[in-house]
Automatic annotation (TrEMBL):
Pfam families: Methyltransf_25. One of its GO terms (molecular function) is methyltransferase activity. Keywords: Methyltransferase, Transferase. Residues 64-150 form the Methyltransferase domain. Coiled coil: none annotated. This is Class I SAM-dependent methyltransferase. InterPro entries: Methyltransf_25, SAM-dependent_MTases_sf. GO terms for biological process: methylation. Residues 1-45 are annotated as: Disordered.
Length: 255
């Protein structure tokens, strides 16, 4: 049975959809991501998430499943300690970028195309499961988290922003569409869902050095506005406070 925290997460996340009448007028999909924006840096960034995963891998290393891998920032940072990587993503272009990164680093890997948790059986288990910046895409968090734990022989590392990554654009939804959003889901909301599953993660809050880029053209598309309004959107973005950089690492052992 779903708990109150899982219900709250669903409600907050559902409130961030785009109303169908706005979506219907969009020139291009507001949801597409460019894999280039998620490419893994050549030198891994030393973050609490990376340190938590290395700790779970231990000096002897092990296998890693990267759920919602994108270009592999989370798991490719573990090369040297990770003996084998599995990248799972629902987008083939992201898996292609992951494969390029793994090949360049000479680490053995597999890819699984599919939606977590439906594709969990295809991915199998790994010593360590990492899942970075995916939770805010998820509406039904309880089965998603349960499957992460079930896939991990040693432990799980989640990285997420302190609040929904698109919440900084909420003033622009009001300005351009008169659309008022509910408050964004936060790390505390995710931790509350884990508590309902009997999991108490170690939570480390930190500030990202390299926050994702914010091109006005991308924001224009995200707001379902035509490309010829990009100058207007860029001007409106200049009036926003800086994009929040607070992130959190949530980690727990499964054995
Ligand atoms: C914001 S990106 C993060 C990518 C990478 N983990 C990182 O930290 O750079 C989210 C990724 O998760 C994928 N994704 C979102 N929900 C998913 C799901 N339920 N199952 C599989 N992939 C998912 C998206 O396709 C996208 O590649």
């Amino acid at each position: 049975m779903m708990g109150a925290a899982a219900d709250r997460w669903r409600e907050l996340q559902s409130g961030r959809g785009v109303p169908p009448e706005i979506l219907a007028r969009a020139e291009a999909s507001p949801w597409t991501h460019d894999p280039k924006d998620f490419a893994a840096p050549e030198e891994p960034v030393d973050t609490p998430s990376r340190r938590a995963a290395l700790d779970l891998l231990g000096p002897g290393g092990g296998t890693v499943l990267d759920v919602g891998c994108g270009g592999g920032v989370a798991s490719l940072a573990l090369v040297g300690r990770a003996a084998h990587l599995i990248g799972l993503d629902r987008a083939q272009d992201m898996l292609d970028a992951f494969a390029v990164g793994a090949t360049a680093r000479g680490v053995p890997y597999d890819t699984v195309l599919g939606e977590w948790p439906d594709a969990a059986a295809a991915a199998g288990t790994a010593d360590v499961v990492v899942c970075h910046h995916v939770l805010h895409n998820v509406v039904e968090l309880e089965p998603f988290l349960t499957a992460l734990s079930a896939a991990a022989r040693r432990g799980v590392v989640i990285e997420m922003l302190a609040q929904h990554p698109m919440a900084w654009l909420d003033p622009l939804w009001v300005r351009f569409h008169n659309l008022h959003r509910p408050p964004p889901a936060t790390t505390d909301d995710a931790v509350a869902v884990l508590a309902e599953l009997g999991v108490t993660p170690t939570v480390t809050g930190w500030e990202r050095v390299n926050p994702p880029r914010q091109h006005p053209a991308w924001v224009t598309r995200r707001l379902c506005l035509p490309a010829d309004r990009v100058v207007e959107v860029a001007a409106a973005m200049d009036e926003l406070p800086p994009r929040p950089r607070l992130a959190a690492t949530l980690t727990w052992r499964t054995a």
